[in-house]
């Protein structure tokens, strides 16, 4: 446990990993036999934590967390009061200010906040008076201290337990790697060693964030794009890092939610996050030419499963329901055939979702995601390019959008086949993602015109593609040939309409 002088401004540097598919009851023993930890004696703690905020969560809005922690059982407990500042990066690697002080018991002490960041949060003391318990966490922590030959020291913590808020519960099963000495690269080196045999996923949410979301019944909901606030003084590598972090976080947060959620939108937003990430890599390819991105071939099975799952979800929840009345036309036999088709596809979707979750449990997936996370953290070392003069970053952003718009216009003029139309749709997506990412740097009129055009094209061409995909699913699963023929006809009609 930490105990810092209250006059200092300590920083916690931590890499968080969730453990998909792991058996919580067997994890501690399994880790104890891992080569990295086998000869290191673990210590075990029972931790009970109470998190405080105002009823309208003013503390959370200011990017801070205040908790009381009980270490040990009821017989001889030790209480610690901790103030943390929120991590500024959308990353599994967090850097946060942290002040921890022993207190007398299960009550907050204002005096324990002297000399901390609290004076900037609550200058007049009115916020402290309004603090109430928001949620609690209970977990068993198994600790190993890893000292490396390079002088780095890392605390490896396995936490097994639960978050409790508003009568709801959510399990905790995660690893925290905290840097005690050395460079953050030591965290990734140790994480890689463990991830070679243990499936992991970068965890972007702290326990505090999960607790607040659970209290709002919002944990594991689809994570949509949340473009961060941009500063025109950023260099292009810094801009790339800020945007790519958020996009990758959207991808990994939805992967985490996929472990327990059947919501089709979670699958959709995971794919959106990955596509936004890839589009941004294209956008910044010259800026990041010196930063060789890790290969992601090991993600291909997962990405393929995501695509197949999305096609099934769209067919079952959107495309086929919208076409059912046109096919059935009050014919009892056709209605029965349609119901049989929908049941078969629903069963196929259930199997596909299981395959997707199995893919998340492959160690090679976690290793690849870790490599990408570390790569993102190291972008700050890329040689700085721009802005060398006032407005240069805005000029660069405008130039990228104009270039993408010209490519889209040229492709649209020559889109006479289904394959060419598909290319138009892909270019429309890239333009829309770029506009959304760079909107704060763009002239409003340009952003509005290009964004609306891209969305319009993507929507109109997407309808035809969705029908074609539904027909392919029906035919590929050897289902009703009459319905497959009907869907092919609708797809042809939609495609011809989209060209006009």
Q: What's a quick, concise take on this entry?
A:
It is built from 15 helices and nine strands. It has helices at about 25-30, 60, 120, 125-130, 185-195, 205-215, 235-260, 265-285, 300-330, 330-360, 365-375, 390-415, 420-440, 445-475, 480-500, and strands at about 10-20, 45-55, 65-70, 80-85, 95-105, 130-145, 155-165, 170-180, 200. It starts with 10 loop residues before the first strand and ends with a helix.
Overall description:
This protein has 500 residues and is of the alpha+beta class. The chain folds into two domains: 11-219, Hypothetical Protein Pfu-838710-001 (Beta Barrel); 264-499, no CATH class. It contains 15 helices and nine strands. The protein has helices at residues 24-32, 58-61, 118-121, 126-129, 185-195, 207-215, 236-258, 264-283, 300-328, 332-360, 363-377, 392-413, 418-438, 444-476, 481-499, and strands at 11-18, 43-53, 64-71, 78-85, 93-103, 132-147, 153-165, 168-181, 201-202. It has an eight-stranded antiparallel β-barrel, surrounded by four helices. The longest helix has 33 residues, at 444-476. It is globular. The model is unreliable at 1-8 (pLDDT under 50).
